[in-house]
Write a structure and sequence with these properties.
This protein has eleven helices and nine strands. It is an alpha/beta fold. The strands form two sheets. A seven-stranded mixed sheet has the order 1-2-3-4-5-7-9, with helices on both faces. The protein has a two-stranded parallel sheet with strand order 6-8. Helix 3 links the parallel strand 4 and strand 5. Helix 2 runs parallel beside helix 3, helix 3 crosses helix 10 and helix 5 packs across helix 6. Bound molecules: octanoyl-coenzyme A (CO8).
Length: 295
């Protein structure tokens, strides 16, 4: 995608103002974009009205408080620019789209930290699910739990056809439970029975299996992922914005309202659940398992 304007976000800490500067396309290509503090890059092509967000938070794009804060700031900025009509979310890391919520934000943390973290997770979901932009997840790697949620929250999902990648809400495998709005988003996408099976068993699906139940809309060869995403984006953008946006709102508002009117109670539920000794023990065991698998 030819770039006429690009943004690089440089937020190191939540709450800090983003230092952004519109730069020319040649500057973007020549500029080193792998700064240690940067968790994602956002390139906006004014000529097409489409932005591409590339997550690049090593090692696995886990959704930490810092990550989510930066993500939401970027999203808000794009949303405020009326010339931006579409957003493609993808990963710059090999093999991983996003490993989901950062488990370390939920393990060994104070109730206050857990609450602040959960509010940021809610915010990410609310912002993407209700976005006026067309949102496409270009899933070029594994996408468990919160990574799957982020994809489900978009309007369209295209996954790289690589059997080593998987996607799904696998929370029960960690001994935790996907909250009602994760479940609702999944039901809205793949229906009640598929969701019941997927959530109860904590299933992770290969791209082919995910396509079969409608968890993704399309699978394509990995080297065609971005080109296909751009083509699909063009199709969505051919529909008049107001008609598409009203339709989106009609489909999603009841689900959004359910959380929006219960945010505080949902935070309290999360905090009291996640700080239980038994749940902390499960998370500890899961982290150990991840370490052992690596060794
Ligand atoms: N959070 C924090 N650290 C993580 C996470 C994570 N989600 N995933 C992986 N890591 C860490 C690993 O521990 C490892 O750390 P270290 O280098 O210090 O040993 C490092 O990242 C690299 O991990 P891998 O070696 O496993 O990387 P691979 O490229 O081999 O595999 C995967 C990538 C497939 C993403 C793999 O790491 C994996 O399966 N990760 C676990 C994913 C997962 O299960 N996520 C669930 C998170 S929970 C969630 O999103 C929703 C929670 C809802 C809460 C509801 C409660 C009420």
């Amino acid at each position: 995608m030819a770039l006429r304007a690009a943004w690089r976000s440089q937020c190191a800490l939540p709450g800090l103002l983003c230092q952004r500067s519109p730069v020319s396309s040649s500057a973007v290509h020549s500029r080193n974009s792998t700064s240690a503090s940067s968790k994602m890059s956002v390139d906006f092509d004014k000529s097409t009205g489409v932005a591409v967000m590339r997550m690049k938070s090593l090692p696995v794009n886990s959704l930490s408080l810092d990550f989510l804060t930066e993500f939401c700031i970027n999203l808000k900025k794009l949303e405020m620019d009326k010339s931006c009509r579409g957003l493609i979310i993808t990963s710059s890391l090999p093999k991983v789209f996003s490993a989901g919520l950062d488990i370390l934000e939920m393990y060994g943390k104070s109730p206050e930290s857990c609450g602040e973290f959960w509010k940021a997770v809610q915010e990410m979901w609310l912002k993407v699910y209700s976005s006026n932009m067309v949102t496409i997840a270009a899933i070029n790697g594994s996408s468990p739990a919160g990574g799957c949620l982020m994809s489900l929250t978009c309007d369209h999902r295209i996954m790289a056809d690589n059997p080593r990648y998987s996607i799904g809400l696998n929370e029960t495998q960690l001994g935790i439970v996907a909250p009602f709005w994760f479940k609702d988003t999944m039901v809205n996408t793949v229906g009640h029975r598929n969701t019941e099976m997927a959530l109860a068993l904590g299933l992770l699906y290969s791209p082919t299996e995910a396509l079969k139940i409608g968890l993704v809309d399309q699978i394509v060869a990995e080297d065609k992922l971005m080109a296909t995403s751009e083509q699909i984006m063009a199709k969505w953008l051919a529909v008049p914005d107001h008609a598409r946006q009203i339709t989106k709102s009609m489909m999603r508002k009841p689900t959004i309202d359910k959380l929006a009117s219960n945010r505080e109670a949902d935070i309290q539920n999360f905090v009291s659940f996640i700080t239980k000794d038994s749940i902390q023990k499960s998370l500890h065991m899961y982290l150990e398992m991840l370490k052992k698998r690596k060794a």
